Amino acid sequence: MNYSKPEFKEKYDNYINGKFIAPIGGQYFDNTSPIDNSFISKYPRSQKEDIELALDAANAAKQGWENTSAAERASLLNKVADIIEENLETFALIETCDNGKPIRETLNADIPLAVDHWRYFAACIRSEEGGATELDQHTLSMNIKEPLGVVGQIIPWNFPLLMLSWKLPPALVTGNCVVLKPAEQTPASASFLMEKIADVFPPGVVNIVHGFGPEAGKPLASSPKVDKVAFTGETTTGQLIMQYASKNLNPVTMELGGKSPNIFFNSVMDADDAYLDKAIEGAVLFAFNKGEVCTCPSRILVQEDIYDAFMERVVARTEAIIQGDPYNINTMVGAQASNDQYEKIQSYFKIGKDEGAKVLVGGEANKLEGNLANGFYIKPTIFEGHNKMRVFQEEIFGPVVCVTKFKDEAEALEIANDTMYGLGAGVWTRDAHQLYQIPRAIKAGRVWVNCYHAYPAHAPFGGYKKSGFGRENHVMMLNYYRQTKNMLISYDKNKLGFF
Amino acid sequence: MNEAIISIKNMVAFLIFEIMERVTITEAATTVLEELKTKYGELIFHQSGGCCDGSAPMLLEKDEMYLDESDILLGKLHGVNFYMNQDQFEYWKHTHLTVDITKGRGASFSLEIPLGLRFLIHSRLFTDEENEILNKKNT
């Protein structure tokens, strides 16, 4: 089945204080589709004064929103989930158009998962209880969770609606108001969402402001009117946001990417069965979302005695990938999100080859025909080399994986942990001891065992080392958007006796 | 006599070190850099890593970022210092970098983004001779 480019309005505005309003300076930027470089629509090029407007609206709304009941907030989250679900196909098309990812991914992964995150956090807040401890017969310690106030969120472009749905629900359901800036590469689904849910929340509770990082992102991240900043992106901006937060003594959470190892022990080839088939797919998942995933399994580590046989299957499976028109339901790998990503990936092809990495498959751009000739397509690529090569150490953010072999468990761990990052990892084995011990020894926040690229709302996600800190998803997320009020209550009528 | 030869060799090595560089910039990128210098004043490059717009250089106002001895100064490009954090440098130090510019749209705070442009890095391996001189004390 073939889909086609969805319809867009001529231009979109910011959503502030419950209204769609033009940027104060009147400037807009053109948003284009990486599929064919065609025009999508105009989005606000907001400046500091637009951010200020949104922050003032959020601050004015916070007392009222905090005082709503958990039941009410949860029900509004469920309403958003229902609305996204009712418009699932349109959201999927918008996401495909704006980001370049294949429609089969947006229909089956991005949008359904986004729906589930809204529902999950609605459920969390309803089932939660606070804490009360009788410290002695006259003294009660009560912990009441209170929202932080106003949260600034800056989200990335690789899963636009899903990342919005990771960040907004836990902040809103805990009683915070939010100013969110979508990535300037992919503003479309956030604007479409606000049009659909414009009447759901009270004015000022959710505010969406579009614009460029230095002009709109920085004023949001550095404003003293914000009580917390949550950021997903790269390390330099992460460091800057932490600096700004230090001036305001604000908490931050950071998700900054990785260079995730995907480790295959020799037992995966003990039988040629469904499990081996799954393991091979697990290796090829580097091409999921054209590799534009923070946890892209971009390093494959294979035990040396199965290396040749296993890689033969992985290369064959990679060669079978269908790349092409993202609107075609059979397409597996679409277009990179922007021209600069496209250029960057190709610069890594050059340095990879210079360093002596061997191209097992791919290794170049994919020049497609017709209007797709203007899009940004990269062939799924496997490099063979060693872990000190730069292609093994840097996040390429493309459908590019680097493979190397290891002798034993110790060497597998040494290679896996020889990286600045620690976001994700994969461990594939039929050995019951390895299933537990290897993941425990890998310094990463998420280790997939005999699976990869699953992101359920109910499992915490986040980084070790330079991949950041703080977690997303899971009920524990609620406390990243709250502070604890401890009430220490005495039921003793007698004085202390000091004075 | 031997000492004289050694001191001449050291001098030559020093001169070569002066000529050799870790980082350079293309003409097209220089034009954009100069434009932004005029607009913002003193600037620095900081090489980013990680997710999304990572693995690319960020152009920032000079005092925007807190820098210390863990940030390695790789070179100066038309008066603009180019820095990289020490741990990243350990993986990059055997390669020569060229800052270039391309059409694009980053989501970071880099100053060229509103122009619809992105700085990016092209790399090549250092020659044995360059490695000998530039990375001697590190190896």
Question: Overview of this structure, please?
Answer:
Helix content of chain A is 37%, strand content 20%. Chain A has helices at 48-66, 70-86, 88-99, 103-127, 160-173, 188-197, 213-222, 235-248, 274-284, 307-319, 339-354, 390-393, 409-417, 432-441; strands at residues 14-16, 19-21, 28-32, 39-44, 131-136, 139-147, 150-154, 177-181, 206-208, 228-232, 252-255, 261-264, 299-303, 358-361, 381-384, 400-406, 421-422, 424-428, 446-449, 464-465, 468-469, 482-490. A seven-stranded mixed β-sheet of chain A has the order 14-15-16-13-12-18-19, sandwiched between helices. Chain A has a six-stranded mixed β-sheet with strand order 9-8-7-10-11-21, with helices on both faces. Chain B is an alpha/beta fold and 139 residues long. In chain B, β4 and β5 form a beta hairpin. Classes of the chains: A alpha/beta (499), B alpha/beta (139). Chains A and B meet through α7, α8 and α11 of A and α3, β6 and β7 of B.
Distance between the termini of chain B: 29 Å
Radius of gyration of chain A: 24 Å
Strand content of chain A: 15-25%
Uncertain runs of chain A are: none
The protein's oligomeric status is: heterodimer
**pLDDT < 50 runs, ≥5 residues of chain B:** none
How large is the count of helical segments of chain B? Answer: 4
Helical coverage of chain A, percent range:
25-40%
Major sheet description of chain A: 7 strands, mixed
Global structural class of chain A? alpha/beta
> Order of helices and strands of chain B, N to C?
HEHEEEEHEEH
Strand order of the largest sheet of chain A: 14-15-16-13-12-18-19
Secondary structure: helix percent of chain B = 25-40%
Characteristic terms for this protein:
heterodimer, A: 499 residues, alpha/beta, 7-stranded mixed sheet, 6-stranded mixed sheet, 14 helices, 22 strands, 37% helix, B: 139 residues, 4-stranded mixed sheet, 3-stranded mixed sheet, 4 helices, 7 strands, 33% helix, elongated
